[in-house]
């Protein structure tokens, strides 16, 4: 029975044959290529990590040198050694004498491989730790700057001294002189021709009743168809038209009158056989609007206190109301003979009131504009 392993041993008959394959029809197959061996060291991991930009270490190819028979013999146990002397030069199978003969006995290298894997694992762990510490850890755990509060030195309170209070000085009693009454400009008559007579009337108080009483005191034995000019004053001096007119006719106010009329004005009383009849003349301001002033003074027709303009009782007023008269004047008739209320404007912007028509004609003559 043939030995199955016999084909692996050299044929003794062919040892002296220069061509070992001369008597064998099957040629010997070429030896297999050596396996690719890669190796990682700490230095190679650092170099590959730098070259790849931090992507990670890679293993490098490694080519081991030819191990001689003597080195294998020294590193193997005694029981695994193969006696090289058992083969003579004739048993070399035609190999050159200088070629090393390697035992086909497998080398026991399990312990060396374990040590190598341990070293590689340690190197890999160190590389992963270095990459994680310098590249991965800062991305997930950024460094946060902690601002510690600065220690402030204790504040020393300032030394305060109590304020010096000066001694209280009693106030000196002073006497305030009484306020002097305002000095008004002297009265200037608006008559271009002087009145037949002049008479001042001083009032203790400026009211409608006091005015009527002061005018009534001027009734004497005056000749008929004469005009007496009266200068009315009170404790403050000459009376202002702006304050005077609202006392007689409540339809007017000092605010509106002050926008249109001068302060100085002329009062007069006309005497005839029917009695004494009051009248006045006021001057429009040069910058006032005449049409607006006419509209304002037309309120007299709606007034309910017109009897304040009469010295004597005029009787009952006409139910027909005011009517148009001579030269643009308007008038209201009363039941007493000679009594009628007349008002209007002259051509030089003078406002005229008279409680009788005869008194109006006499006043207009004195103003230089006879009717």
What labels describe this entry?
single chain, about 375 residues, alpha+beta, nine-stranded mixed β-sheet, two-stranded antiparallel sheet, 8 helices, 11 strands, about 15% strand, disordered N terminus
SSE layout:
Blueprint: E1 37-39, H1 42-51, E2 60-62, H2 69-75, H3 110-140, E3 197-202, H4 208-216, E4 226-234, E5 237-238, H5 241-248, H6 254-258, E6 261-272, E7 275-284, H7 290-297, E8 323-324, E9 330-333, E10 340-345, E11 350-354, H8 357-366
Parallel strand pairs: 3-4
Antiparallel strand pairs: 1-2, 4-5, 4-6, 6-7, 7-11, 8-9, 9-10, 10-11
Beta-strand share of residues: 15-25%
Radius of gyration: 73 Å
**Helix/strand order:** EHEHHEHEEHHEEHEEEEH
The general outline is rod-shaped
Task: Calculate the terminal CA-CA distance, rounded to whole Å.
Answer: 184 Å
Supply the number of helical segments: 8
The major beta sheet can be summarized as: 9 strands, mixed
Number of strands: 11
Question: What percentage of residues falls in helices of 4 or more residues?
Answer: 10-25%
Uncertain stretches: 1-9, 79-104
The helix/strand class is alpha+beta
Mean pLDDT: 78
